[in-house]
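Exercise 3.2. Students should predict the tertiary structure of the chain below and write it as structure tokens, then compare their answer with the key that follows.

Predict this chain's 3D structure.
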Amino acid sequence: MTAADVSAPSSTAPGPLSFAGRTVVVTGAGRGVGRAHALAFAARGAAVVVNDLPDPADGQDEGADGAEGTEGAEAVVAEIRRAGGRAVAHLGDVAAPGVAEALVERAFGEFGRVDVVVANAGIDRIVRLREVTADVLTEFFRVHVLGTWALCSAVWPHLAEQGYGRIVTTTSAAGYFGLAAALPYTVAKGALHGLTQTLALEGARRGITVNAVAPFAASRLAADRTRSRPEMYEAIERVAPPASVAAVALWLAHESTTVTGMAFEAGVDAVGRIAVATGDVLTVDGALTPEDVRAGAALLTGGEVTVPDLGAADRPLTRRLTERAAATATDRPA
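Answer key:
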């Protein structure tokens, strides 16, 4: 497939966002947020590959958002087909060797192309600091980071060859701001920020955009975390449906959307950007001392912050490096 096989964005004019003729792969799509993604894409014309884990009887009892794989994935596919859409199920753990490649091959075998990937698979549970072990950290990294990387790596050559693609990863506000009793989850989600940014940089010249969505919505993950406070989860279910998250994922995945390297928290019928920012910079004429830092603490901790451009090559300290290097170069003997 070549770039000529992929239609250019038809229009940025107002109107429904259509995915007719596009193929979308969604992982962890058997329930919760992933299911909402799959249904929303199909409703707007996309052919959807619904991925989730195999049945719990096979030894894996939790998919993204805690979905029971066979029942969840097959049920979502059946729901899409009843509504007149096109979908197939794929069962497998995308973090396992060869599974992501098989998932992409299934998409090509059924629909002949892949245009959009939504890496939604994830796990969560309450883990207090002293309960964290290397095995627990590895488990969370394997699902969130390795699974996302494996899927993106498997589909990347196809997207690059056709000169077009949309990738949506799934991070969390907890990965940016922290969350008590969730160290493995927050560290893994924080790592996805760097993964998303780097893929966005590499995809920019290939027609591939890569952005992240941070769900704030009813899901099995949210249910597990609020198990001791059922009234809180009841409120989440009532006012924060997964459809709000899907709306943002669809916008990011559409051909008319060209933003890349960004993350958006979505839920409660609202959306806002979340980002890593740089603050005011304290500079001194000579060598920086601890006392200098103490004297400038108010500036450093209470000043303005700005979000640098993708790649952050032009940020305060890189500019200072350039300025200082230029100044010292003129002082060197010829």
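Discussion points: The CA atoms of residues 328 and 334 lie 12 Å apart. The chain has two domains: 18-274, 278-331.
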